[in-house]
Prior knowledge:
CATH class: Mainly Alpha
Structural class: mainly alpha
Largest sheet: none
Number of helices: 13
Bound molecules: fe (ii) ion
CATH superfamily: Ferritin, core subunit, four-helix bundle
Amino acid sequence: MLLSRAEMTFDFHGEKFDPTRDREILRWIFSQFLYGEVTGIQVGHWIYAAPDLGAARFLAKQAIEELQHVGNFVEIMKALELGAPLPAHPVLKFLATGMMGDDWLEHVAMEMATGEGFVLAAFYALMDTLDQGTASSPALREAVAIMQRAARQEESHVRFGEETTMQLVRERPALRRRLLGANLVWMWGVSRLAHYVDRKLPREHAVLSQVQPFLAHALRCAELRVERMGLSDRPLSQLSFSQRSALVAELSGSKLAHGVGALLRGPFGLLFPRKRRLTDTYLSDPGVRELSNPD
Ligand SMILES: [Fe+2]
Ligand SMILES: [Fe+2]
């Protein structure tokens, strides 16, 4: 990967979650991860659009891994007795589904390099704040071990996204501007999520009080990845307002409409109907519903 695990790791100063005291907040956090993994069904769309056999093979393997991760998060929620998963936050739905790429370039750059890179930083953060070392209960130890294995697979997804993006941009440098615009919209989405988190989370909690600086760190990692992929010679946040506006304005209308539609679909679902997929129905799927009745 273009960023090492050490670079992507945020220093929580040794503060940890307590699975018993923090049950409700962990339930919310793991519910968001669970949704993120269910969006792995979108990989099927990209197998159909794969440019060559090597890419199709990689995506087929990735699809299996993402669906295994769904099972992994169900298993962790069960082991930690977190209860039934909660619905995903609308901003997360926007980032994971609304920002779905319009073409292969956007898929590898936005969903795999930027998006999964961001998820990976969150994976590392969650493992670091859950792992109690020798004081971990067997359930907690197992949860962290499962996440370690999943994180290694996520690293390979990010690496594929980075390498393919760099190759495509080397062949057609003009594509850079579109990716910069899409990254700006994505960063705006993450800052909305940060705003929500800021209003909702208790400030006196040792870990949660550090979520804002963590999100700022994850955004800096995304900027660094954009630079290292050769898309920009400076951090996106250092571009002037007019430079940023021009990049976003150049994005296709369909991309913006797609994203806005996804944001509005939450509260106004009836006005923006579309085919129901697993990402809409997974909470009532028998494989997830079992969580409401822990044995
Ligand atoms: Fe995954
Ligand atoms: Fe992944």
